[in-house]
Every structure is written in C-alpha cells, then in structure tokens.
Design goal:
By secondary structure, the protein is an alpha+beta fold. The protein folds into two domains: 1-32, no CATH class; 47-97, no CATH class. The chain has four helices and three strands. It has a three-stranded antiparallel sheet with strand order 1-2-3, with no helix packed on it. Helix 1 crosses helix 2 (60-67). It is elongated.
Length: 101
C-alpha cells in the first residue's frame, strides 16, 4: 500500500500513520526505515538493513535467506511462511549464543 504524503510547506511533507502519529520528512526523501524487520522482527541496525529495506522491505539477513533465492516470487508478494520465519529466528538466536570471548 502506497503512503500518501501531504505537503506542509517549508520543504516538508507529512504522513498520518494509521496508529495515530505523524511522520514529517523533507519533501522527496525516502520513507523512514522501521525499527524492526517486517519479516523476522529483528532490529534494523546496519546501513545494509536500511538499503535492503528500501529495496525489499526486509532486513539484510532476510534478504540473504529468502529474497536472493526467490527474487521473482518476492517481487510478486511471496513471503516465507510464519513457521519458517520462526525456525530461522530460533536458528539465529542459537548461533548468537555460541559466541565466546
């Protein structure tokens, strides 16, 4: 769904979010990157995550796991099943716990 931005003047525009808050940005700038990936729920932390979000609406880890293997299907709206995302998130967490210093 495309966002509708309203001109505020002074080079700014505003989007009224359905949750009841407003987003104000310079005219013509890119949509803001969400705090969390819309697919897996992980934090969007890196410039790679921001870049991947603007291209595929997901974090860079999800892009590596699903978008790169299914580019055509992804472009048509396919997303991995919830169960598959849950397994991947569990795998990521287990892998992160193994890091020893």
């Amino acid at each position: 769904m495309e966002r509708v931005w309203n001109e505020l003047g002074d080079g700014r525009e505003c989007y009224e979010h359905p949750a009841g808050f407003s987003i104000i940005r310079p005219v013509g700038s890119q949509d803001p990157v969400p705090l969390f990936c819309l697919v897996c729920g992980y934090s969007m932390l890196t410039p790679d995550d921001a870049h991947t979000h603007h291209r595929h609406t997901c974090c860079s880890l999800c892009a590596l796991k699903w978008v790169d293997l299914n580019k055509e299907a992804w472009a048509l709206g396919w997303r991995p099943p919830h169960e598959e995302v849950t397994r991947e998130v569990t795998r990521r967490r287990a892998r992160m716990k193994r890091i020893n210093f």
